[in-house]
Amino acid sequence: VITVSPEITEISSDISINEGGNVSLTCIATGRPDPTITWRHISPKAVGFVSEDEYLEITGITREQSGEYECSASNDVAAPVVQRVKVTVNYPPYISDAKSTGVPVGQKGILLCEASAVPSADFQWYKDDKRLAEGQKGLKVENKAFFSRLTFFNVSEQDYGNYTCVASNQLGNTNASMILYG
């Protein structure tokens, strides 16, 4: 009896999918005896195998199911062969944190807007209905992947009021209001 160690001959490419979509991954392997194929999700929360054959089907994928999926082919002839596929799940922004802040006149004030999104959100700030531009006198806007910070270097009475942070990506947008008060 000739034994042949397992070899993965075909595996799905990395994929990017919108939340709620369906994913179908394939992992084909050869070897003698025929290798056993298993898929597992490389994640701290993952338990056991997600599939015990060549195909892995995920319907209505959620953001928690994003990450790397590992296909393993084993037949006891040699160590199992493993390959990974990266699954990126896109979802619209949601704002996780936006607090109102009290700052005395003449002090430095900061409004912070935190949002989670894939791809990363773009941020815009409004006071009442007027968009705040970067480089406006006495203001600084810093946008990072998961938050935007609006800094007032020297708060005046005119700065007090209602501010809105808008977070958007290709899949949608959301906003949150907060107040800068004295």
Approximate helicity band:
under 10%
- Beta-strand percent range: over 45%
Count of discrete domains:
2
Integer average pLDDT = 95
Number of helical elements: 0
CATH structural class of the largest domain: Mainly Beta
Level-2 CATH architecture of the largest domain: Sandwich
State the secondary-structure class: mainly beta
Organism: Tauraco erythrolophus (Red-crested turaco)
Domain Ig-like: 6-88, 92-181
Membrane topology: Lipid-anchor; GPI-anchor
Subcellular location: Cell membrane
Task: Report on the architecture of this protein.
- The protein is mainly β.
- The protein has two domains: 4-91, Immunoglobulins (Immunoglobulin-like), CATH 2.60.40; 100-180, Immunoglobulin-like, CATH 2.60.40.
- 0% of the residues lie in helices and 60% in strands.
- It has no helices and 15 strands.
- The chain has strands spanning 4-11, 15-18, 23-32, 36-42, 55-58, 67-74, 81-98, 101-102, 109-118, 122-127, 130-131, 139-143, 147-152, 161-169, 172-181.
- A hairpin with a 3-residue loop joins strand 12 and strand 13 (147-152).
